[in-house]
Write a structure and sequence with these properties.
This protein is of the alpha/beta class. Among the domains are: about 130 residues, 3-Layer(aba) Sandwich (Rossmann fold); about 160 residues, Rossmann fold (3-Layer(aba) Sandwich), CATH 3.40.50. Helices cover about 50% and strands about 15% of the residues. The strands form two sheets. Strands 9-8-7-6-10-11-12 form a seven-stranded mixed β-sheet, with helices on both faces. A five-stranded mixed β-sheet has the order 1-2-4-3-5, sandwiched between helices. The longest helix is centred in the last third of the chain and has 25 residues. The protein binds NADPH dihydro-nicotinamide-adenine-dinucleotide phosphate.
Length: about 450
C-alpha cells in the first residue's frame, strides 16, 4: 500500500469512529493532506502508529451545566472539555460559549490546538472546551451563575500542570474572572496558572487580550515582507468584531493600513471614510454596550453602511483577515478576493476558510497563512502568562509585545523553511502542518505507547 493509501485508510477510520463530527473530519483531513511528504521520508511515523493515536483524544469530558436565569427559570446546558494531547505539556486551549458548540466543534478546535501549540515553541499540549450556552442577551448575573455551575464540574479536571483553559468565542475577560473566582473558592488555592486571560492586577499578563489579533497582523506583516510590501497605505478587510478582530484592526491601523470593513453574525459594515473603521466607536459599541454591528453603522453616520446580503469578502482589499468563525470564507469568496487583487490572507479565526478556498489560495499567487500559525499569538502569550504566574513576575506591555512579535516571526520562519525544505516554497499550510506534526510525533515516539 502506498503512503497516500495508508493515510486515506486512517482518515476513513477516523471518520467512521467519529460520526457526524464534520468540523473534526475537516480539521483532520486538512492536516493529513500535508503529511504524505513527511511520512514518505520518515515511514516510522506510520509504522509506530503515531497518526491514529494522535487523532484520538486522550480524554473527553462531557457534563451537565444547570443554572437558573434572572426570572427563576431553570436551564440545562452541556459542557465539554477535550484533553487532546499532553505530549508537549499540560493541555492548553480555550473555552467557547456559543449555541453551535457540540463535541465535533470542540474536537476540531482541540486537534488544531495540538499543532498550533507546538508551533509556538512553548511547552504546552492541546485541548479545548466550551458549552452550547449562549451568552448573548444574558445579564452579568446570569453569565456569572452559568460560569460558576460550569466550573463546579470542570475544576476537578484542571490544574496548572494538568489542563489550563483560556477564552475563545463568547468567553472574554468577564467570563474568565467568574470561572477563576469559582475555581479558587472550590479548591481554596490561588492557583493563578490554572487559567489564562485573567485581568491585569490579579495574575493576568499584559498583551494577552490583544495577542491573537496583534499576532495575526505580525504574521501577515512577515508574509508581506517576503514580497517587499507592508501594511502602509493598504486596504484591509477584517471579519468579526470580537476580541481577535478588534485588536487585529488596532494593529493594522498602527502599521498604517486602512480597515474598510468588519462584521458580526448579523451582517457587515463598509466604512468608506479616509481612516476606515473608527476603532474607539467599535469598541464602545461591542465591548461596553455589547451591541450589534448595525449600532456601529448607525452611530458612525453616512460614512458607514450596513450590508445584510452578499459577503464581507466582496469588499475590495489588498489584505484579508478572517477573524470571526469557522468556514466563513468559501470558494466563491476566495475567487472574489483574488479577482479584486488581494495578495495576503491570514486566518485570525480557527479554520475560517473552507478546504476549497484554501486549495485555491495555495495554488494561486496569494500568500495564505493558516490559523494554526497565524493566530498562534494568543496561546503563545497565554504561555507567557503561565510563565509569569509561575515566577510571580509581571512584564511590561512593551516587553511582552516584543516577545509576541519575535514569536510570530519565528513561527513564520519555521513554516516557510519547512515548506521550502519539502519542495513547496510559500506553502504555509504544508509548512505549519509538517513542522508541528514532526515535533509532536517525535515526542510521542520518545514517550512510548501511552
Ligand atoms: P468573540 O466572541 O470575541 O468574537 C467573535 C466574533 O465573530 C463576533 O464578532 C461574532 O459576531 C463573530 N461571529 C461569530 N460567528 C459568526 C458567523 N457565523 N458569521 C459572522 N460573524 C460571526 O471571539 P474571538 O474573537 O475570541 O474568536 C474569533 C475567532 O478566533 C474564533 O474562530 C476563535 O476560535 C479564534 N481564536 C481566538 C483566540 C482568542 O484568543 N480569543 C485565539 C485563537 C483563535 P456575533 O457577536 O454576532 O456572534
Amino acid at each position: 500500500m502506498t503512503v497516500a493509501h495508508r493515510l486515506d485508510a486512517i482518515y476513513e477510520d477516523v471518520r467512521q469512529r467519529n460520526p457526524g463530527e464534520g468540523e473534526f473530519h475537516q480539521a483532520v483531513q486538512e492536516v493529513f493532506q500535508s503529511l504524505a511528504v513527511v511520512v514518505d521520508r520518515r515511514p516510522e511515523y506510520l509504522d509506530a502508529g503515531v497518526i491514529p493515536r494522535l487523532c484520538e483524544p486522550e480524554r473527553q469530558i462531557i457534563f451537565r451545566v444547570p443554572w437558573i436565569d434572572d426570572s427563576g427559570k431553570l436551564h440545562v446546558n452541556r459542557g465539554f472539555r477535550v484533553e487532546f494531547s499532553s505530549v508537549l505539556g499540560p493541555y492548553k486551549g480555550g473555552l467557547r460559549f456559543h449555541p453551535s458548540v457540540y463535541l465535533g466543534i470542540v474536537k476540531f478546535l482541540g486537534f488544531e490546538q495540538i499543532f498550533k501549540n507546538a508551533l509556538t515553541g512553548m511547552p504546552i499540549g492541546g485541548g479545548k472546551g466550551g458549552s452550547d450556552f449562549d451568552p448573548k442577551g444574558r445579564s452579568d448575573n446570569e453569565v456569572m451563575r452559568f460560569c460558576q455551575s460550569f466550573m463546579s464540574e470542570l475544576y476537578r479536571h484542571l490544574g496548572e500542570y494538568t489542563d489550563v483553559p483560556a477564552g475563545d468565542i463568547g468567553v472574554g475577560g468577564r467570563e474568565v474572572g467568574y470561572l477563576f473566582g469559582m475555581y479558587k473558592k472550590i479548591t481554596n488555592r490561588f492557583e493563578s496558572g490554572v487559567l489564562t486571560g485573567k485581568g491585569i492586577g490579579w495574575g493576568g499578563a499584559q498583551v494577552r487580550k490583544e495577542a491573537t489579533g496583534y499576532g495575526t497582523v505580525f504574521f501577515a506583516q512577515e508574509m508581506l515582507r517576503t514580497k517587499g510590501q507592508s501594511f502602509e497605505g493598504r486596504d484591509v478587510v477584517v471579519s468579526g468584531s470580537g476580541n481577535v478582530a478588534i485588536y487585529a484592526i488596532e494593529k493594522v491601523q498602527e502599521l498604517g493600513g486602512r480597515v474598510v470593513a468588519c462584521s458580526d453574525s448579523s451582517g457587515y459594515v463598509v466604512d468608506e471614510s479616509a481612516d476606515g473603521v473608527d476603532l474607539e466607536l467599535l469598541q464602545e459599541v461591542k465591548e461596553v454596550r455589547r451591541g450589534r454591528i448595525g449600532d456601529y453603522a448607525e452611530a458612525r453616520g453616512p460614512k458607514a453602511s450596513v450590508a445584510d446580503n452578499g459577503s464581507i469578502w466582496d469588499v475590495p482589499c489588498h489584505i484579508a483577515l478572517p477573524c470571526a468563525t469557522q468556514n466563513e470564507l468559501d470558494l466563491a469568496d476566495a475567487k472574489t478576493l483574488i479577482d479584486n487583487g488581494c495578495v495576503v490572507v491570514a486566518e485570525g479565526a480557527n479554520m475560517p476558510a473552507t478546504p476549497e478556498a484554501v486549495k485555491l489560495f495555495t495554488e494561486s499567487e496569494v500568500l495564505f497563512g493558516p490559523g494554526k500559525a497565524a493566530n498562534a499569538g494568543g496561546v503563545a502569550t497565554s504561555a507567557l502568562e503561565m510563565q509569569q504566574n509561575a515566577s510571580r513576575d509581571s512584564w511590561s506591555f512593551e516587553h511582552t509585545e516584543k516577545r509576541l512579535a519575535e514569536i510570530m516571526a519565528d513561527i513564520h520562519e519555521r513554516c516557510a523553511d519547512t515548506a521550502e525544505e519539502y519542495g513547496h516554497p510559500g506553502d504555509y499550510v504544508l509548512g505549519a502542518n509538517v513542522s508541528s506534526f514532526q515535533q509532536v510525533a517525535d515526542a510521542m515516539i520518545a514517550q512510548g505507547v501511552v
